[in-house]
Amino acid sequence: MAHIKMLIWVCCLALWTSFAFGIGVNWGTQAAQTLHPSTIVQMLKDNKIDKVKLFDSDHWTVKYFANTGIEVMVGIPNNQLGKFASDYDFAKEWVKNNVSTHLYNGGVNIKFVAVGNEPFLKSYNGSFLKSTFPALQNVQKALNAVGLGDKIKATIPQNADVYDSGNGGPSNGNFRSDIRDLMQNICRFFKENNAPFLVNIYPFLSLNENKHFPVEFAFFDGTSKPVKDNGISYTNMFDANLDTLVVSMRKANCAGVKIIVGEIGWPTDGDLYGNVTMAKKFYSGFFKKIATKKGTPLYPGYIEYYLFSLTDENQKSIAPGSFERHWGIFKYDGQPKFPMDITGQGRETMPVGAKNIKYLEKKWCILNKYAQDIGKLPSSVQYACSRSDCTATSYGGSCNKLDANGNISYAFNMYFQMNGQDVESCVFDGMAQIVQTNASIGSCLFPLGLDSAGARIGLDSMINILVGFFLFLALL
Ligand SMILES: *[C@@H]1O[C@H](CO)[C@@H](O)[C@H](O)[C@H]1NC(C)=O
Ligand SMILES: *[C@@H]1O[C@H](CO)[C@@H](O)[C@H](O)[C@H]1NC(C)=O
Ligand SMILES: *[C@@H]1O[C@H](CO)[C@@H](O)[C@H](O)[C@H]1NC(C)=O
Ligand SMILES: *[C@@H]1O[C@H](CO)[C@@H](O)[C@H](O)[C@H]1NC(C)=O
Ligand SMILES: *[C@@H]1O[C@H](CO)[C@@H](O)[C@H](O)[C@H]1NC(C)=O
């Protein structure tokens, strides 16, 4: 009996730790060639990451998370919020086709629906102010209607500027004045539905946007100048930011709503502070902090989070900066960038990279060394960069030290690789040539494209072969 009790204990403890302290990542797919979902599933398992946040609900992608135990957050893009807001039947259909359909025995462990993504960013000029809350209500109502409301919660990933602290510290926090009523209503809706408040917190952006931001305040290693607020001493921006939200929530009468950090991370290229050294320092401090389960001064306990992001995305908008395409803890090809210990024990090792990645052939497109009239090239370079990704060559980036010819070759190669090494994409008025020797220059990597279409076909035909094989056995 004692043994059984013991067993139940160990079992429950294991379940409890895995559910309560899971590690989450965002997986965005704005890249020229994305990794196959089955590759992603294996990466998550290999690195003991048990929650994934997606930005849509693409059926083909979501189905690969079936029977993996991985907890999934599916997303509704901002441009669909209008439809969800104005048409409850549409929300019901969506729940049926994009959520319920995955919930068979051994199906996908969907836990959250992210309604929109940072819809109240100031740069959207208020485009989603009217639709977001009604869309949220319709999605939760549709989930409730089919009896999923207890298991699956609708929420909204918010950018951290939906609240601020005026000129004071966190104790002065409140939801942004232009959207205060709206945010307060949304927050109370979460409270009624026992849904979490998702917030994206980026110390890197604070540093990036403000020259006077104290660098050490972005990290977790302490500072000589803590910020004193209402008797509390803040040594890092993360704590101060999260506590500003806690105070804002108290003022909105929705204290007690669970806070989940929807995105947190540090980019590794394309910026003076965006490099592997800084990213490693940030993550190392963050994982250690989370592991203490101390939380923040006003939000004690374990904090759930989703890292941003799993892999680099070479087609993300770079309006905020060149770093936008380099948020991955893994490179574009699923290979790790630097050692880390997600459990926060300080035993840092290289994460396990994606397996069986198929690259395009070992071919690079560079400036033809006999090219005449290089004066004409800036427009070609601009063309190539605008349709591929030259962010590594920007100020502070890993390829910023290339000479003029290196810059041209870099642009040509990125365009060539991101177009699947199509011969037509390495012409540039005869100024370009294809070579078979690695064109990388020093620490500046000239990457090879991925054969992602091949990976997709590869796996499906593999399944066909297996099915064929079993049919063959059955016939025998
Ligand atoms: C989800 O459901 C809607 C409505 O039923 C459908 O039109 C759509 O194709 C589905 N998939 C995604 C990714 O939204
Ligand atoms: C918001 O307004 C600015 C300035 O009027 C404009 O440049 C920008 O394109 C607008 N953005 C959106 C998403 O409408
Ligand atoms: C990373 O960025 C920091 C801050 O700009 C800089 O001091 C450091 O030299 C950089 N490290 C590398 C390896 O580029
Ligand atoms: C190469 O391109 C980068 C990014 O546009 C630029 O900052 C740098 O000055 C260029 N280098 C030369 C030598 O033209
Ligand atoms: C090309 O060289 C770079 C730098 O030495 C290296 O990191 C990369 O793996 C090489 N690429 C291939 C395909 O061999």
Short description, anyone?
This protein is an alpha/beta fold. The protein contains 13 helices and 15 strands. The chain has two domains: 20-325, TIM Barrel; 370-449, no CATH class.
List keywords for this structure.
476 residues; alpha/beta; two-stranded antiparallel sheet; 12% strand; globular; disordered C terminus; binds 2-acetamido-2-deoxy-beta-D-glucopyranose; Glyco_hydro_17_plant; lipoprotein; GH
How is this structure best described in words?
The chain crosses the membrane at residues 453-475. It is an enzyme of class 3 (hydrolase). One of its GO terms (biological process) is carbohydrate metabolic process. Its main location: membrane. It is found in: Cell membrane. The protein is α/β, with parallel strands linked by helices and 476 residues long. It folds into two domains: 20-325, TIM Barrel, CATH 3.20.20.80; 370-449, no CATH class. 35% of the residues lie in helices and 12% in strands. It contains 13 helices and 15 strands. The protein has helices at residues 2-20, 37-46, 59-62, 81-86, 88-98, 132-145, 180-193, 203-209, 237-251, 276-291, 377-386, 404-418, 452-475; strands at residues 24-27, 51-54, 71-76, 109-115, 153-155, 157-159, 163-164, 174-175, 197-200, 227-229, 232-234, 259-264, 304-307, 364-367, 432-435. It has a nine-stranded parallel β-sheet. It has a two-stranded antiparallel ribbon with strand order 7-8. The protein has a two-stranded antiparallel ribbon with strand order 10-11. A hairpin with a 2-residue loop joins strand 10 and strand 11. Helix 5 packs across helix 6 and helix 11 packs across helix 12 (404-418). It starts with a helix and ends with a helix. Mean pLDDT is 92; it is low at 5-20 and 454-476.
